[in-house]
């Protein structure tokens, strides 16, 4: 901790409710172990761990445990895109085809089956802002909600990409699959941020891992954040689990072991591993308007623009999004450029404030930044799929906010 809770307006005893509450999830076998961190006005008021990072090895969660953050990669890639935008190297209105030519001949699904889809030419180009807001018409194979999702799976895009395929080839493949809808017409959680990762590569002339390492992680001191865990650090990596329908947890080595080797496919939408300390630094960059410890990656006006609702007419995801699994609830929640944004706290029925922005990851990790309360909070564990494990995220907000005294 950086500060006693009372110094930043927390009741210390009430803040400890966070620890006692989440301990129960370990005790009842829902989670193997976790880390939680809460800061206010940039000062850490609570860091706590409980349980095991690796159940089979009986290895506890500690300060430097490395976690697969999955879709918490998305805000980082979005920041990278906005850095290039600030430099005048791209426009948010650029057609994606300007940077990835394969997206120049898009087709939109109009009916039929996955094996014989009916399509029509897209009437609107897919633009960078469509990718940032998940309104591009792309999807994920793991949604299991539409014929186009099935096409993704048939081509090897359920979780990640086919073995040996790099990011450039994946983008070319996605460009050849029908869109769910016209760009800008709806919101659908998708591989859009992976496409943004490829745009970072094309525009910057660097591989995505190199760009992030040199221009985001090194300046911020995020030394443990990368696309895989080095061989000499594997004893710090948490194991990955999934809920067992019969009760308890099952180790998922098939997905989990991907973090132990350098990937061919650099997923800007879900490929990073990180630590609580590293991701805290990223949240502080956002909370401070794009600057941390004298390093500025974005201007404050850009961060404010990123973290406002960009859905047409200011609507929420309940009205504009497809009813599929994502890393947030839909009611009262809008979407910015790479993050969800609370537009109506009462509608969402979670104790928070308008303007809070957030996202989470497939293995039940989560973060949020609440500018009104000057609070950042993070939760790390490794159990998938996140929306079905437990109501970890709304509970975190309620537990943090009930401890505030001013």
The whole-number mean of residue pLDDT values reads 96
| Structural class by helix and strand composition | alpha+beta
CATH topology of the largest domain: Beta-lactamase
Low-confidence stretches: none
What helical percentage do the residues reach?
A: 25-40%
Query: Which second-level CATH architecture of the largest domain applies?
Result: 3-Layer(aba) Sandwich
Specify the biggest β-sheet. Answer: 8 strands, antiparallel
Terminal CA distance reads: 20 Å
Continuous helix count:
15
The best one-word shape is globular
Our count of domains comes out at 2
Total beta strand runs: 17
What radius of gyration results from the CA coordinates?
20 Å
Major sheet: arrangement of strands:
3-2-1-16-15-14-13-12
By CATH reckoning, the class of the largest domain would read Alpha Beta
Classify the beta-strand content into a percent band.
15-25%
CATH superfamily caption of the largest domain: DD-peptidase/beta-lactamase superfamily
């Amino acid at each position: 901790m950086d500060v006693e809770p009372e110094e930043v307006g927390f009741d210390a005893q009430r803040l400890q409710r966070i620890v006692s509450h989440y301990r129960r999830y370990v005790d009842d076998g829902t989670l193997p172990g976790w880390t939680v961190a809460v800061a206010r006005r940039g000062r850490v008021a609570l860091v706590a761990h409980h349980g095991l990072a690796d159940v089979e090895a009986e290895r506890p969660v500690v300060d430097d445990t490395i976690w697969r953050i999955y879709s918490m990669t998305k805000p980082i890639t979005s920041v990278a895109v906005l850095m290039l935008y600030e430099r005048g190297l791209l426009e948010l209105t650029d057609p994606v085809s300007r940077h990835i030519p394969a997206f120049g001949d898009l087709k939109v699904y109009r009916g039929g089956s996955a094996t014989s889809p009916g399509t029509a030419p897209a009437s609107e180009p897919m633009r960078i802002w469509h990718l940032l807001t998940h309104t591009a018409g792309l999807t994920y194979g793991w949604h299991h909600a539409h014929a186009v999702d099935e096409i993704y799976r048939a081509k090897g895009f359920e979780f990640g990409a086919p073995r040996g395929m790099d990011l450039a080839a994946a983008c070319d493949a996605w460009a050849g699959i029908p869109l769910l809808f016209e760009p800008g017409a709806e919101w659908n959680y998708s591989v859009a941020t992976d496409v943004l990762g490829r745009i970072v590569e094309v525009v910057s002339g660097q591989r995505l891992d190199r760009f992030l390492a040199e221009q985001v992680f090194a300046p911020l001191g995020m030394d443990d954040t990368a696309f895989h865990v080095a061989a000499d650090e594997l004893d710090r990596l948490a194991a990955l689990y999934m809920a067992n329908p019969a009760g308890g947890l099952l180790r998922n080595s098939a997905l989990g072991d991907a973090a132990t080797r350098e990937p061919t496919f650099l997923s800007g939408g879900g490929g990073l591993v990180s630590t609580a300390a590293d991701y805290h630094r990223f949240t502080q960059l956002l909370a401070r308007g794009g600057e941390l410890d004298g390093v500025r990656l974005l201007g404050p006006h850009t961060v404010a623009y990123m973290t406002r609702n960009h859905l047409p007419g200011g609507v929420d995801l309940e009205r504009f999004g497809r009813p599929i699994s994502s890393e947030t609830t839909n009611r009262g929640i809008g979407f910015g450029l790479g993050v969800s944004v609370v537009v109506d706290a009462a509608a969402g029925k979670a104790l928070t404030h308008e303007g809070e922005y957030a996202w989470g990851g497939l293995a039940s990790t989560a973060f949020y930044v609440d500018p009104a309360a000057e609070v950042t909070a993070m939760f790390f564990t490794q159990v998938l799929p996140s929306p079905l494990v437990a109501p970890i995220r709304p509970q975190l907000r309620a537990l943090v906010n009930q401890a505030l005294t001013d």
